[in-house]
Amino acid sequence: MASTELRKRNVAETPTSDVGEDQKEDVESEDDAKLEVDELAKTLPQGTDHTPDLLGSALSGLPDRWKNWVIRGIFTYLMIAGFCLIIYCGPLAMMVTVLLVQVKCFEEIINIGYAVYRIHGLPWFRSLSWYFLITSNYFFYGENLMDYFAVVINRTDYLRFLVTYHRFVSFCLYIIGFVWFVLSLVKKYYMKQFSLFAWTHVALLIVVTQSYLIIQNIFEGLIWFIVPVSMIVINDVMAYLFGFFFGRTPLIKLSPKKTWEGFIGGGISTVILGLLVSYAMCQYRYFVCPIEYSESLGRMTMDCEPSYLFKPQEYSLPDFFLSVTDVLKWKPTVTLYPFMLHSLSLSVFSSVIGPFGGFFASGFKRAFKIKDFGDVIPGHGGIMDRFDCQYLMATFVNVYITSFIQTASPQKLLQQVFSLKPEQQLQLFLSLQDSLSHKGLLND
Asked: Shortest CA distance to 170 belongs to which of 196, 151, 144, 192?
């Protein structure tokens, strides 16, 4: 490669007697970095330009702008249909899908770093990256298993060790990867290797931790997963449509095609359609009940008495609406599901802050002169191109649930109880028995 040859030539021409010249060899010049990025841009996929031959020939008579619109529309409908099918298949299918999407997004991010390693012939980057992905998933998904399946795991002798020492095992696995990385360091490429080590960890932070939070949201009830995902999809689709037909005013330099008209139109559409989706889903226990493990049935269940959030409540309208209701002879109250009020917060975040996940991804791609992360989805690019905003939304939903919705989970408390010594468990049992007896909840 050009950058490697240039560096070798500079090294060959460097006098060995000069003090400090060895240190200069380790420093990249701006010309090297520019050559490297140019080479990367040639090797990485340009996703939205990838179109199936049959579809491309069928639309060959259309202008490029409308051709892209049709292709994007077709695959948008296919993705929405696939999402509905996954919902129909149940929570396990959703969790598996989240894991598969996580792996594919991580692959697309790491492939850019791997291209850098191939240019310089550096060892072990891809193997280390996938090793850290497996280690991270072991830690985070193990935490989920202990939170929601602690009772059944503790009753299985050969799994009890993994529960008791889960974090220690996770730390040991990470240390193995850390030592492996240090042993793979190559002279004159330390800066590049440490940069890509940081790259791997940022990718893990963006992808793995967010998918872990998505799984937690699913356990709180499918509505906490489906509604936020739907809001991002609605915002993306409606912003594209408003921008395509009415867009005139550029929104941000990172994404020249984004317009204020699309941003505002997508935001208003997200609030309205988000409320409608929330209203429809609040009426079904399948969507609103938390996912819990039933010991008697030996499987996950979604059967419960819906909480206050999912029962219709009557709210008084603000005072400034009363004059209007008097004239029109309407009731001064409105009946809503409380969850719909929470969905307003979700829709505002998804329409105002959510797009910045896309802007962040756009800046990342521009840094490497690529159009998309991949070419899996014609008209859209890679998986990461479609899920960049979803991960940001997942974090907000999880923080929102833990801050304003969630109370202490009996299953999580049981996990802590089962980790106690037998005499401590007995002490806790007697204390709880005395407390319930004093409250009159237990018979003598």
From this structure: 144
